[in-house]
Amino acid sequence: MSFRQNAYIISIHHSNIARCGIHAEMPHGYTNYGENITFSDCTLATSGGIAVYNGNPNGRFNLINCSVDYVGQVAVSKAGAIVFYGGHQEFEK
To answer: What is the torsional sign of CA 49, 74, 29, 64?
Structure first.
């Protein structure tokens, strides 16, 4: 799931995102995006890739009570923030 141009104040609830290279990403280089992107009670699982990637210096991912299970990397932030509130994180290595 990729958040780009004009993507802001988005809430995703009770969803399962699986078998992806990057489960949730906010790449660098777009405008008017990234404010308050929230996942709650979700599962991001089963890949060798990255669960959550943020490249937007003004962007923020909030993961509330989410399970990030068996991924290559739980979170990569080149800029901006990725914040976990509760939940579970498990990764390959």
So the answer is: positive
